[in-house]
Amino acid sequence: MYLKIKRLIDIILSLLGLIILLPVFLALIIAIKLDSRGPVLFKQKRVGLNKVHFYILKFRTMEINTPKDTPTHLLKDPDQYITRMGKFLRKTSLDELPQIWNILVGEMSIIGPRPALWNQYDLIEERDKYDSNGVPPGLTGWAQINGRDELPIEEKAKLDGEYTEKISFWMDAKCFFGTVVSVLKSDGVVEGGTGTKKENSISKGQES
Questions:
Q1: Is the pTM of this model over 0.90?
Q2: Rg of the chain, C-alpha, whole Å
Q3: Per-domain residue ranges for the chain?
């Protein structure tokens, strides 16, 4: 029952988000075009609900010659590929804003497990253990406010499993407001690593 309510909330909030954030979208589009050569948006194949593939949207933060379908942490010297504007977008998580469209069309939810890359077989397999591939992937989720991408695969999947088991309005609200705090504090944003949770050392590997 809640999943139907959740979908309605997603539609309403994503529509409001697109309208309210239109000036921000326009400003970022201009800044990206002025900063580097290439398209404004970046598309990448991800794993959606019930392991159906879809293309996630982001503002491009890397040069157009970056190897495709490779997580940032697997690139040799990822900083060489990240644009000046990209560093800002990734630090502030503004690169994720185009996913509001993915939410509106039903490919994602505001809250849920972050969609795995199509070739992240280890993460997909771990999530199968917790039935987490059976809930809509999210813009943010329980794992993101409890360690983000510095978490080992097993721990990340376990947190996704906790979310799947406890999915509710209150769980989503906790994830939403926890994400706001994390973004304001820039938690979890250091390039070039994942699965190595250390004190004062957090990493992000989203685009490649």
A1: no
A2: 16
A3: 2-185
